[in-house]
Fold each of these.
Amino acid sequence: MSSIAVVGMQWGDEGKGKVIDLLSELAQHIARAQGGNNAGHTVIVKGIEYRFHLIPSGILYPHTKCYIGGGTVVDPASLLLEIDGLKKHGISYVKRLYISQYAHVIFPYHRLIDQLSEKAKGSSAVGTTGRGIGPCYVDKTNRIGIRIADLLTPKVFRSKLEAILAVKNKELELLYQHKGFDLDDVYQEYSDYAEKLALFVAPVEEMLFAAAQKKEKILFEGAQGSLLDVTFGTYPFVTSSCTLSGGICSGLGVGPSRINSAIGVTKAYTTRVGNGPFPTELAGSELDLFPDHTTAREIGVTTGRKRRIGWCDAFLLRHTACLNGVDSLAIMKLDILDRFEEIKICVGYKIDKKPLKSFPATAEELAEVEPIYETLPGWKTSTSDINLYDELPENAKKYLRHLEKYLEIPISLISVGPQRHQTIWMDRFFD
Ligand code: GDP
Ligand code: IMO
Ligand code: MG
């Protein structure tokens, strides 16, 4: 097995960053296919906490090469800040970080339109990160976007920017009564970014093809989660890209036969940040049983919002395992359940007492479902120092086996804390 996709099975923030970092020790290439700086992936090494938004979480191992694929949307200011962060921590990036020419560029009007359109939606707002992700993908699909390749060709860039600014300024004025942007200002700002980013632009697609031909080890780093997928997620409360394993092919220009397996990353419970239905969400006294948001590390990395928290939804996981073709599970944050007397797992939904056969396709229906729970005994001891499966409390093993059996997918990794060593390896990766 020489390439592995790592995808989120819930609504994002499952702990993909930690899994990618762990597996990067063995990999040579790590690539992001979609999304932008709406993502926030946390890696903790030797007490230092790194938060990646667009740079792949495998950058901390000096032997790796990291790629930002053609299916991503790049906010140059944010990316340059991330690169500065690497510099400050003494992490090398020259000849290690590559950006595809095909990636689309996020401009200030994307961010502003994202924020203004959310405001205009009022109570039906998606709860986006406000980073301009949706509006940038809209322009891409509408064939009026500006790509990294355009940014590097001054004449082309200026003429494309002039054409699109005329449209965006009109949109801002007529729809939102907001002042537009000055062509010269934006052109100058982004020409400066282009100069700084040029060093990183490379034929990512060919480089990954060559790596796959040589059977070098590649990790595909998913961003967001399966239920934020623009097609199969809880639409319209989703992001604007394909977040599933299938999106890796179109987002990086790699053929499906080059992806050998998929690890589905899930928390031992569920979280969601942003709006939209969440059947197992907890409030009140049951939520109080969870550690507080800061202790549980359930504060959004990108926006600082508190994440909504709920029980593990295995019915949802069965659905997203199917959407991704998940081969094995990485169960994260088991330690957060350490204190519970009893733990619930949702194994089905019902509406008007009738169990549903499959996962609802609409947000409206999902908002109506009543979870069907099974209750398991808690283990009430700390798991955060355990490295071997056999040393886990019996009830923790029972919980994990229950999940494995219900999903019919083996667990390959269990995480019991945010640090590298707080991991129970159940399988070998990259033979
Ligand atoms: P990602 O977006 O999927 O990479 O996940 P995030 O980094 O946004 O959120 C996961 C949070 O949980 C981060 O703060 C991680 O450091 C933390 N984390 C990851 N695995 C564990 C774990 O097993 N236990 C605990 N307590 N925290 C974890
Ligand atoms: P990682 O990669 C959790 C959510 C936003 C909002 C919706 C649309 O860290 O798991 P967008 O700005 O993308 O248009 O917002 O998607 N969202 C995430 N939630 N983790 C993420 O990324 C997310 N990226 C976007 O909160 O509900
Ligand atoms: Mg995150």
Note: The first strand starts at residue 3 and ends at 8.
Amino acid sequence: MSSYSIDSLEQYFKVYRKSVNKPKKFWGKIAENNFTWYQKWDKVVEFDMQKAEFVWYKNAKLNITKNCIDRHLANRGDKKAIIFEPNNPDEPSRFFTYSELYTEVSKMANVLRDQGVKKGDRVCIYLPMIPELVFTVLACARIGAIHSVIFAGFSANALSTRINDCNAKVIITADGGYRGSKTVDLKKIVDDALNKTNTIEKVLLVKRTNQEIDFKEGRDIWLQPLLEQAETTSKAEVMDAEDPLFILYTSGSTGKPKGMVHTTAGYMVYVAYTFKNVFNYKENDVYWCTADIGWITGHSYTIYGPLLNGATTVLFEGIPSYPDHSRFWNVIQKHNVNQFYTAPTAIRSLAKERIEFVQDFEMDSLKVIGSVGEPINEEAWHWYNDHVGNKRCPLVDTWWQTETGGIVISAIPFVTPTKPTYASLPLPGIRPVLMDELRNEIEGNQKLGNLCIDYPWPGIARTIWGDHQRYIDTYFSKFPGKYFSGDGALRDEVGYYRITGRVDDVIIVSGHNLGTAPIEDAINEHQTVAESAVVGFPHDIKGNALYGFVVLKEVGLWRDRNNLYKEINQLISDQIGGIAKLDKIQFVTGLPKTRSGKIMRRILRKIAEGEKSDFGDITTLVNPEIVEEISKEAL
Ligand code: PRX
């Protein structure tokens, strides 16, 4: 029990040492003391880093929803599990106690079962941030179906790619969704996506906006009438520790998105443990993570982590700028939020607004503030610390990824002293290492390296859906025997880690991971485009923005630049989603290429960053003259 909650720096070091010296004992005890199991494990962990095979809690049997809900009913039945804060502040907030959550999830689980959804089936969820999203996620887990939540900002194309990749049988969506002053036609997007898929048998519909939709008899089904008649209790399926819990897609630097697979027991233990410690959650606290459930942060730290700890978690449907830029602070005041977890891009955008927006609100309830999704720059760190945390709340800069399942490097509030821009120390069980390009471990400090982890932890993803080889190639091949994160980092003299950003062709824009390849594919679909290259460049609010270098088939086509710019961005929007639109497009006569035909993105990145002359060694290029030409006309 004592290791579950870390309360002093001394204890942290003790627990950390224990966790890396005797990981099996450490993770065994945590699992044993804090969860309910139908059957205990034969072995805590079995793994092979070369083959990327991980089995945690071998042969244990459980259901994660028993741990998220049923386990709390005796003592926390009347405690609020979810506070729903709608997009429109004039619409009343809604509250669901743990008992009510049990009923709602049971009803949804029974409806899914009645609709023929079985253990192991894939269910796509394309919903706005409304309570039904949480209910459907948990209902899938209750009956053993594998949920694949797709961020409701993705386009029909992106949606169909993801449906096809996992052969989903059912999709759950809504008529529409609210987003600030706009509505999003979710059902219409699903209809478009389904023109390019053939595995979906049923579309289950939540009513949210009451807008008109195209209703296809025999395929589309309104959920409400079914829920009204559904039984209010439901049996939880007995799941093996390693049965998949969910698939969540993340962008790769090449090719189609990767369906990261997380399994049941290890994920459960890891997110519960990290939630408890990273947010210092105490029994009556109100916790709020602003991330959309379409991303891993929403899975692990809006739903699973908090509910596993019997916490009260806020579900926010809106955006930080609606109806004005005080919305976050207003919600914190309204619900007396104690822990607040958001992304640097949101902080930067709010820091640009009048200071009264934040100062007008009473935020004394706050105890811990957190940051996730991208490096938090020093200025944003101080603004967040000074104006939101009021210089008295520890700011935890949490580093992790879809692949890690939960937070892996972060300060523990009231335990680890924080340092701006440093994620700080590894959590128990995590062994980070920095590797140089020659695959040697970097021993000293202040040297930049590739951030790897050299021992598995329970929350590590198990595979890429349908493509285990890609999982091995992406994460376990470059530095054999280690998990390679794709991020660069450095370590200071006391062992704190500072994450410097991606070292591959993934670009983080407003906290969203975007691979360059799919964006280039979308641009290249334009009939006038011969080829293109996309790189990131620093942006005040988004962290990074996208810069496209585009070669047209005929030079004469350049005259119509404005239209081209719009059309290219429209293509990107259709193929991927609005989040992947380019901020800048430069039409060029060629791209810098090596003799083997590879585009030298390093040079394009420098040009996009405003560099005019220092491009390093360009002698290996077949067309070195192009560098000057492009840089002269850089935007
Ligand atoms: O580059 C790192 C960045 O976000 C990437 C993971 O993105 P995703 O899988 O979408 O998960 C985001 C939420 C966990 C990482 O490879 N990143 C995430 N958190 C931080 C970060 N970069 C710096 N500091 C962080 N705290």
Note: The pocket of adenosine-5'-monophosphate-propyl ester is lined by residues 250, 295-297, 372-375, 397-402, 423, 485-487, 499, 502, 508, 513 (CB under 6 Å).
